[in-house]
Amino acid sequence: MVGKAQEILEAAHSRRIFVTTPEPVGFGSHETGAVRMGRNPRTSVLNSYCQGHEVKNLFVVGGASFTTYSEKNPTLTIMALSVRTARYIASEVKKGNLRVT
After folding, report:
1. pLDDT value of position 95
2. Cα(88)–Cα(101) distance, rounded to whole angstroms?
3. Which of 5, 26, 77, 80 is deepest in the core (most CB within 10 A)?
4. How many Å from the N-terminal Cα to the C-terminal Cα in the chain?
């Protein structure tokens, strides 16, 4: 980004270009892990379909279900979990295992 910005400014014949750092700065934070996913209800809140162990009509889809997390952006994983959870909900409703009110 810095290099491209410098190229644009030079093409626009800018007289002064200040480069304060060679790399972009800032902090990206993706909060995760508040509602743990797992097989054991004693150590987790959600099952593998993001469904509450104790409250069957509770589904939590988002980064909160991650038990561990790297520094990478979680958006695509959250989207994949959302699709998987939605398909599971639709299947369970058709089977009569979940009620939609």
Report:
1. 95
2. 17
3. 77
4. 50
Residue 59: how many CB atoms within 10 A of its CB?
A: 19
> How does DSSP classify residue 64?
G
Q: Residue 3's pLDDT is what?
A: 79
Q: Of 30, 36, 53, 84, which residue is the catalytic one? A: 30
Handedness of CA 96, 100, 47, 53 (dihedral sign): negative
Residue with tokens 């009509």: 57
Question: Which amino acid is it at 89?
Answer: I
3-state secondary structure of 79: helix
Residue type at position 85: T
- Is 53 known to be catalytic? no
Which residues of the chain register pLDDT less than 70? 21-29, 71
Residue 30: how many other CB atoms lie within 10 Å: 14
Tell me the per-residue pLDDT of 11-37, one tens digit each, with 9 for 90 and over: 998 888 777 766 656 666 677 878 989
Give strand pairing partners of 37: 46
